[in-house]
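Q: What would this chain look like folded?
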Amino acid sequence: TLVLFYPVVIFEFLNYDDDRYITKNPFVSAGLTWGGVCLAFTTVAASNWHPVTWLSHMLDCELYGLRPAGHHLSNWLFHAANVLLLFAVLRKMSGRVWSSALVAALFAWHPLHVESVAWVAERKDLLSTFFGLLALLAYAQHVEQARNQRPGARAAYGLSLTAFALSLMSK
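A: My prediction, written as structure tokens:
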């Protein structure tokens, strides 16, 4: 996955809506500021309310400025993390290593994911998937702990709800 998608780090911003999300968006391109964080939670911009995505873009601007390689690198790493999380979720729920690995590989290399990785403004897809998979993993942990009457079941359930909320606030 890392080798297959590595070329994205040399891409420029796309002319679809990367400008509306990042390059010509003053509250994002300024990086992480208190005003930007407040706007992320209180404003609908580019026809969306997705504060986690705005915060992610602001953090990228803070770290990389408006150099597209860093923004693409973040998408690339989120996609790789999503592949690992999907494998972990499937393995935890099924107990099957090779089947889980095959499904994760198909997910990783499927052509439909090129858009989400190569188009910076599609970070919302990567983030919602990341937190959605994290919610599923935490919920599976909750079920296992509750079934075996082990401590930590409530904490795992709380983590699953938190991750689910973050997933919704990403897209």
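DSSP finds ten helices and no strands in the chain.
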